[in-house]
Design a protein that fits this description.
The protein is of the alpha/beta class. It folds into 2 domains: 7-59 and 332-433, Aspartate Aminotransferase, domain 1 (Alpha-Beta Complex), CATH 3.90.1150; 89-330, 3-Layer(aba) Sandwich (Aspartate Aminotransferase, domain 2), CATH 3.40.640. 35% of the residues lie in helices and 12% in strands. The strands form 4 sheets. The protein has a 7-stranded mixed beta sheet, sandwiched between helices. It has a 4-stranded antiparallel beta sheet with strand order 11-12-15-14, with helices on one face. A two-stranded antiparallel ribbon has the order 1-3. β14 and β15 form a beta hairpin. The protein starts with 13 loop residues before the first helix and ends with a helix.
Length: 435
């Protein structure tokens, strides 16, 4: 692949986009997904740039779900042990693939529940406020569920959220957070902080944080460190184990393509794997597998992330996620991130081209440096962005809108092409030239 920031690689022509697609070693994966035909608008094929909100359906998903429906029909309860993918250990079939996506050891990951349920389970264990050390550091612009979760946990422990929560705020006139400011805040309040929790990639701005550096500072101050990977898992090149992240949670319906409301995931670092000191909410699926069916009264947690499970997982959702994870395993995260950086750099180049012709028409608020973003670029346009978004859709270009005035455009490397990015550029340029 070409270097992601080499402008000589790019041109503002359809032939240039197609040349990039021909040079793309991952281009065959696009054929493994369904593109929504009913959203094509005036284009021959939909330009789907909202995989950061809901990923496309892998073509294998339907067959994997149908296999489980067939085994249910044929085997009934015996499917737990004799289905082609036995239901009792089904989540284990996804463990190693999941670990590779997030940079973890298999012991450290489990697929379970939904994202905010997992976040609360992690906060039960990893937010342990004491008399002086009771504060949580979080982004002011974090996704609302994160804000609701930490505020409710603070209240549960008897604290006023306005006192217990430290919000990280961009500098005046800026949209994104400076790493130096995050570190300064942690150090300033170090002996008061129980937990630092970031969104890894901010859902609104698309900024990716310098996790390893920030986690080290949090730990040096005596705090624990957690991540919401809703926009990181399947997007960024992660190394949760090496970065010494204490816990992380994520959904799977965005970049991981598990379908609407798909089953989520959880990471607990190996250093906590056998801890008996951490409080947790317990359920029978987290109980030691060898004695689970003894139905004893005392909970004996499975070592590692599996010990945080509550109930047996939904098999159809696991089947859908397995179809996607197999594609990630074939493509590999390093290769996907290389292509993702090239796609966003190409989009940035084309937006710059629009602004040369129509100065100030479109502002990219996501950091220009690919090291500080993933596959999402957040765009702010002159005029009413929400109206403009609907006009994009009429042309067959699907992005999404977030208040107050942001259109998020996300070329996902697993299935988006450079021609997709060019088609977005064509539509943006058309509206820019109208003034």
């Amino acid at each position: 692949m070409f270097a992601a920031d080499n402008k000589s690689t790019f041109s503002n022509t359809i032939d240039g986009a197609r040349a990039l697609d021909q040079a793309d070693p991952l281009r065959q994966f696009r054929q493994e997904f369904y593109l929504p035909k009913k959203l094509a608008g005036q284009l021959p094929e939909c330009v789907y740039l909202t995989g950061n909100s809901l990923g496309l359906q892998p073509k294998q998903s339907a067959q994997y779900i149908q296999d489980e429906l067939t085994d249910w029909a044929d085997l009934g309860v015996e499917g737990h042990f004799h289905a082609r993918y036995a239901w009792m250990p089904y989540h284990e079939f996804l463990t190693e693939m999941t670990a590779r996506v997030v940079g973890a050891k298999p012991l450290e990951v489990v697929v379970m529940n939904s994202l905010t349920v997992n976040l609360h389970l992690m906060l039960v264990s990893f937010y342990r406020p004491e008399r002086k050390r009771f504060k949580i550091v979080i982004e002011r612009g974090a996704f609302p569920s994160d804000q609701y979760a930490v505020a409710s946990q603070a209240r549960f422990h008897g604290y006023d959220p306005s006192e217990a929560i430290i919000e990280l705020t961009p500098r005046d006139g800026e949209d994104t957070l400076a790493t130096a400011d995050i570190i300064e805040t942690i150090k300033k309040h170090g002996d008061e902080i129980a937990l630092v929790m970031l969104g890894d990639v901010n859902y609104l701005t698309g900024q990716a944080f310098e996790v390893e550096k920030i986690a080290a500072v949090a730990h040096a101050c005596g705090a624990l460190f957690g991540l919401n990977l809703a926009h990181g898992a399947g997007n960024l090149l992660l190394a949760l184990h090496d970065w010494q992240v204490d816990f992380a949670v994520w959904c799977s319906y965005k970049y991981l393509n598990a379908g609407p409301g798909g089953i989520a995931g959880c990471f607990v670092h190996e250093k906590h794997a056998g801890s008996r000191d951490l409080p947790r909410f317990a359920g029978w699926w987290g109980h030691d597998k060898a004695s689970r069916f003894d139905m004893g009264p005392e909970f004996d947690a499975i070592p590692g992330a599996e010990g945080w499970q509550l109930s047996n997982p939904p098999i159809f959702q696991l089947a859908a996620l397995r179809a996607s994870l197999e594609l990630f395993d074939q493509a590999t995260m390093p290769a996907l991130r290389r292509k993702g950086d090239l796609l966003t750099s190409y989009l940035q180049y084309l937006i710059d081209d629009v602004n040369e012709a129509a100065p100030g028409f479109c502002q990219v608020i996501t950091p220009r440096d690919p090291a500080h973003r993933g596959s999402q670029l957040s765009l702010r346009f002159k005029g009413e962005s929400k109206i403009l978004l609907e006009q994009f859709k009429e042309q067959g270009v699907v992005c999404d809108f977030r208040r107050p005035d942001i259109i998020r455009a996300t070329p996902v490397p697993l299935y988006n092409s450079f021609e997709d990015v060019f088609r977005l550029y064509e539509v943006v340029r058309k509206f820019a030239m109208r003034g």
